[in-house]
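WARN no homologs supplied; continuing
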Amino acid sequence: MNQVRTVLVIQVIHSFVSGVLAIALPLMMKERNIDIVVMGLVFAALPLIMQFGRMVFATFSDFWGRKPFFVSNGILGVFSALIYYFAHAPAEFLLGKVVEGVKQGSLWAVNRPFLLEKSGGHWRILVYLRAVLYVSFAVGSLLAGFFVIWFLYDGTMMLCAVLGVFIFALSLLLVGEKRKRFSMKEALHFLDFRKKKRLFKIFLILFFVLGLSYGFRGGFVIPLFLDNYGFTTGTIGLVIGVQTLLAGVFSYLFSRSSKMRLLILLSGILYFATFSVLGLLGSVLASILVIAYGLVEGMTSIGQEGILSRITDKSSYGTDIGLLMTGLHLGETFSLALSGLLISMWGFVVPFVLTALTYGVFSVASYIILRE
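OK structure emitted
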């Protein structure tokens, strides 16, 4: 199995597990009487921890190579699933999110840089990565409800732990690359925000806005939104699974387009239209709109991956991508923590309107700036 294919298979398993957890974990926490405000704070820990780990791992991987961090992703995947297996109190779920965040950071610190290096820096490999992510996440979401029915929540978490073992084994097949010795001076140079180009600095701010948008509709929000309408675990998994599958299909189809700026603007318009009305609809129309959002998500992914490939430096892919995504995950952490409080006070309409407005800002600003 060649190196690119091995990494894509690792991504398939990783995203499959993420799809299962996206459905099973918030419903499991609700069943174990975790308050929605506390749930928001627990979920908010993941992007912050992920980004911190990602920055550390990305910096070291530019010197030491990518393989050690693929291996650690598999090990941490086993531990995080086992923690969720035993968790009943908020602090225990928080510990699971911390470990899961480090696990996510170890993979996302190296998967994009690895694929860019193996493909000569061409951005379309990132689209294939995103398509693989969507499809495998969708399958995990689709099957999550059945896993909960067949194995209960405990058995589902144990299944995720077993899949972490497979990721670990596949990671050992990767060829370790000889890199230069770690240099603190050079690492600080890569991380020095002042030395980045103006375009990079602007998009670091815009990705913070994008993160705000994602947090207001991310994590636990959509599963609990559907649960609030009385949908079963299996139906919630089906709705989100089909949505994500559509996102994967349309991300691949839109990758053939060379009009990245137009896709960014059009996706912003459709995103705004979707979430500005989602919280006001009845259960049937709301579920249809959640599924249809998959088309919009497919469009948004193309623009974002195109931006990443355009403004990062090939000499420090890992560090540059990590720096750029810092803004996104700080924004996501803030809005995720706030979402539980907003939902408890005013329902789902307010966070959905906020996600629509903030994504609109990101989309329009990106469209204008990329024309320069």
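The chain has a mean pLDDT of 84.
OK
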